[in-house]
Fold this protein.
Amino acid sequence: MNLLPEKTVERLSQYRRMLLKHYCKEKQFIFSHELAALLHFTPVQVRRDLMLIGCSGSQRKGYDIKNLIKLMGEIIDSKYGQNVALIGVGNLGRAIMRYLNKKNSNLKIVAAFDINPDKINKELGGVNCHHSDELSEVLKKENITIGIICVPAEQALQVADSLVKSGVKGILNFTTATLNFGDDVFLEEYDMITSLEKVAYFSKKR
């Protein structure tokens, strides 16, 4: 299968999460319009996404839910799981560690990093915290391929460079710093301020 569009992968993740949460024990089949209504998408969009992954439903019954969940897992998840590192163990970092390690067994945060001596060599959020100077060594030892950056913005570029040099192939940036890499690294940036201002704008218009 060719590389899927980013937005399609996002929606597949949402479809799977919604199906696991609401439907996998209640019914066997679901129509595209039912799934679309749960996520405020159009039925056409749902059908297009599912066609891209080679899934077709029955006009009479819809889509087999268990098969959908299985197929989405095969596409989104790595066969053997992926190890994740989190850099910056503040309030946000701890919340992310607790949530992710409870919700997703395929993606596991196995190491955390910080420069605060009160956090070094301690278990935080169920994860061992190392000094940031040990980043390269620990990443290679633990076969970590994904990094989550939760440090102050002025430190983000240095941290990202260290992650890439250590072999990380995917970065989720929670800082306001803008990062740029080549095609060898997939970068996802989440700016909470921009998201909140977007919510504020549209709520004001209502």
In short: The first helix runs from residue 6 to 22.
